[in-house]
Every structure is written in structure tokens, then in C-alpha cells.
Amino acid sequence: MTSLGEAEFALLDQSWHDAITPDAARRMLIAAAQAFADKGYHATTTRDIAARAGMSPAAVYIHYRSKEDLLFQISKIGHERSLKLLTAVQDPDPADRMAATVAAFASWHAEFRTTARVVQYELGALSPEHHAVVAELRRKIETHVRVIVEDGVRSGAFQVPDQNGAALAVLSLCIDVARWYRPDGKRTPGEIGGLYADLVLRMLRPLG
User: Fold this and answer.
1) What is the pTM (predicted TM-score) of this model?
2) Hey, how many other C-beta atoms are within 10 angstroms of the C-beta on 38?
């Protein structure tokens, strides 16, 4: 897996600044995201995380109960931020709302690609209690996108036989960006968002 680059680290520190205090707790959480992305959750130790944060292993437990608690906080915050990003789009036209939603969601998964991979692909390591919290946030995200599809079908802007399946396809396209995107590639996160918005609209609109 790819390490959390300096630019993404700075973005993450800024994004989480108000959500996670004190600074030491935020630094520990970002170090955990970096370690999980590099080595995978199960291969990462609390000693690895502490070393990346420039702290002692004992310092982890001052702010977090366990390695799993670190993963939960990363997953919870990531999903909360994603949901907030999507619900901020309030355009009354379903096609415009879908385009803006996809552009925002896809570009987020490019800009925060490393942490997005942890958020999306390490869910199986969460405890049942924590998994239930994150699963509820995921349901809200899925519902939000499905409502846009339903509104589009109702207005005639979209034509799809399976609205639930269409919503899942839209989300899957955006989430997959985190798997393949590289900052040294041909497109910026914003350009990826624009491309995916266009592709999704082509997929949902009536033929002819």
C-alpha cells in the first residue's frame, strides 16, 4: 500500500483539526491511518503507530483504548465527513444534484485516497459494536444517493430499472477511486470528480 504523503497528511491534519483534540490525539490518529494504509490493520502494532507519531507506545493508551479504537475513530470520522459532504449538496434538479454529489464524493476519495482505503476496506476488523455504528452511517450515505436516483426517475431525468442497484453502482464507482488514484497521474482530484459526474449522468439518463 502507498504511504500517506506529506500533502495528504497536511490536508488530513487540517480536516480533522476541529474534530479531534488535543493535537497529540490527532497526531496519533493520523499516524494510525498512515500505518494501516502502509501495512494493513492486522500487521500494524501500536508500537508502529507510536513511532510514526513520535511518541512512546504507552502514549497510545492515553487517548485511545486500543488499536481497534483507533480504526473505529478513523472509520467513523471518515464516514461522517463523507455524509456531510453529500448532504451539503441541495440542488433541486436531480441531475445537477447527482452530478455535484458524484463530483464531491469521487474527488474526496482521490484527495484523501490513503485514508479512504482504510475507511472503506478495513471494516471487517471493527468490533461488532463499532461496526454497527459505521454501518448505520453507510446506510445513510446509500440512502442519500438512492433518493437522488428516485427523484431523477420520478422527474424523467433518469431511466434505470433497478434504482437500488443504480445507487450502489454510483457509490462503488466513487469509492473505487481511492484504490487506483495516484497524485502523479494525469488528472487532479477535481478533474476526476468532473469526469465521474459526467459518466454517471450518461449511465442514468434515458437512451436516445
Assistant:
1) 0.87
2) 16
Whether 138 and 144 have beta carbons less than 8 Å apart is answered as: no
- 135 CB neighbour count, 10 Å cutoff: 14
Task: Provide φ and ψ at 18, rounded to 5°.
Answer: -85, -25
Cα gap 134→61, rounded to integer Å: 22
* Per-residue model confidence as pLDDT tens digits over 113-164: 888 888 888 999 999 999 999 999 999 999 999 999 999 999 999 999 999 9
SS3 of the chain: the string is CCCCCHHHHHHHHHHCCCCCCCHHHHHHHHHHHHHHHHHCCCCCCHHHHHHHHCCCHHHHHHHCCCHHHHHHHHHHHHHHHHHHHHHCCCCCCHHHHHHHHHHHHHHHHHHCHHHHHHHHHCHHHCCHHHHHHHHHHHHHHHHHHHHHHHHHHHHCCCCCCCHHHHHHHHHHHHHHHHHHCCCCCCCCHHHHHHHHHHHHHHHHCCCC
Give the max Cα distance, the chain. 64
- The per-residue pLDDT for range 161-187, each reduced to its tens digit, is 999 999 999 999 999 999 999 888 899
Half-sphere exposure of 173 (CA within 13 A, CB side): 22
Using a 10 angstrom Cβ sphere, with 0-12 exposed, 13-18 middle and 19 or more buried, the burial of residue 79 is buried
Give the model's confidence band at 34: pLDDT under 50 very low, under 70 low, under 90 confident, else very high.
confident
